[in-house]
Amino acid sequence: MFSSDDIKKKLGYAAADYVQNGMTIGAGTGTTAYWFLQALAARIKDGLEVVAVPTSAQTARVLREQGVPLKDLNEVDSIDLVIDGADEIDPAFNLIKGGGAAHLQEKMVAAAAKKMLVLADESKLVAVLGKFPLPVEVIPYGYRQVAKKIREKYGIETILRLRDGKPLITDHGHNILDCHFQKIEHLHAVHAWLNQVPGVVDNGLFLGYATATLIGYKDGALVYTEK
Ligand code: 5RP
């Protein structure tokens, strides 16, 4: 049996095989994507020529340390392939992301990408999204009003995410409300409703972005599925 860390490492290295010479790659965020960054850097040292568009400041830092050529999203026309992790994946490849607080930038990169490969261990597969609290990125001003509106609409708990005892500040200067839906039945309606609340920047539902998944199992198997 493989540990969770071993599975993440296997996923990251296997994912690097999907990168081809000349590609512009969206580079994901999180503990699974981390291993993809390492594997990508190793392939670049062996002669692969790509540029990477990072999905967070943390990913940019890791890639810079490894000498991977970086571009900002504003410097590219489109992205060939984004490789990223997820917090939950449903059978239609809809995702919850943002456990690492990077979903705003991750979604902008995914939206610019022709393809998105999602890396995850089997524990992230669910029949219905929502057990993982849905991250909603909000501007700090008046966030309590946003939390109240979400509570009133859905009757759920909304918790301001903290880091080191203080409200977490995202790469783009916002806060995060973790919304405990348990089950999100009407994904598109929830996505649209949340994003029209004044003060909401974006939420962690990724609907229709993922084109493939690479799932790691405890017995060491990796299963690639394309839409
Ligand atoms: C960051 C994310 C991550 O991809 C997601 O949280 C999964 O992370 P990990 O691979 O560490 O479980 O969305 O915002």
Which structural category fits the helices and strands?
A: alpha/beta
Q: How much of the residues is beta strand, in percent? A: 25-35%
The largest pleated sheet is described as: 6 strands, mixed
H/E series, N to C? HEHEHEEEHEEHEEEEHEEEE
CATH class membership of the largest domain: Alpha Beta
DSSP strand count: 15
Bound molecules: ribulose-5-phosphate
The 3D shape can be described as globular
Count of runs of 4 or more consecutive helical residues: 6
What oligomeric assembly is this protein in?
single chain
Number of domains: 2
The Rg value, from CA coordinates, equals: 17 Å
What does the model show?
By secondary structure, the chain is of the alpha/beta class. The chain folds into two domains: 4-124 and 207-226, Rossmann fold (3-Layer(aba) Sandwich); 134-203, Alpha-Beta Plaits (2-Layer Sandwich). It contains six helices and 15 strands. It has helices at 4-16, 31-45, 57-65, 103-111, 143-154, 187-196, and strands at 24-27, 51-54, 79-85, 88-89, 95-96, 113-121, 134-138, 157-160, 162-163, 166-167, 175-180, 200-203, 205-206, 212-216, 222-226. The strands form four sheets. A six-stranded mixed β-sheet has the order 2-1-3-6-14-15. The protein has a four-stranded antiparallel β-sheet with strand order 8-11-7-12, covered by helices on one side. β9 and β10 form a beta hairpin. α1 (4-16) packs across α2 (31-45). The protein is globular and about 55 Å long. The structure holds ribulose-5-phosphate. Ribulose-5-phosphate binds at residues 28-33, 84-87, 97-103, 106.
